[in-house]
Amino acid sequence: MAELVFRDLGFERNNGKIRVNFLRLFYTYLEESSLEKIAPFEVSKNSIKFDNVSENTARRKLDFLLANAFKTLKNRLNNKKTVYIHQSSGIPLTGTNYFGLIDRGTNIIEVKPITSCNISCIFCSVDEGPTRAAAILMRT
What we know:
This protein is of the alpha+beta class. The chain contains three helices and nine strands, in the order ββββαββαβββα. The strands form three sheets. The chain has a four-stranded antiparallel sheet. Strands 1-6-5 form a three-stranded antiparallel sheet, covered by helices on one side. A two-stranded antiparallel sheet has the order 8-9.
């Protein structure tokens, strides 16, 4: 039996699919049938157990499924499509106003680990809904 335990991923069954929660803020789905092709399995909060398969084989095959599933990653705050950018994605983490490290030539460096925000500050470029428009109207 191979038990794969994750710190940043959570799993739960949902109508023939497995919902994969990533960093408690993002989610995607895996088809149960895809996981059954690896081996019979069980999911719990932060792990998947596969029967009759080595841990190395299970991890390699699950990593492949997760890489494909992350193409349809969504944000839990607004259910919008999310692109997961990491050090191996080939996308630079500096030089953009939407995420990463932002240096505007002041004594502050902004660190934006995600592009989604539920605060809706009036000076920010992140727009998550009507609360931002209401804040702008209140200020004028």
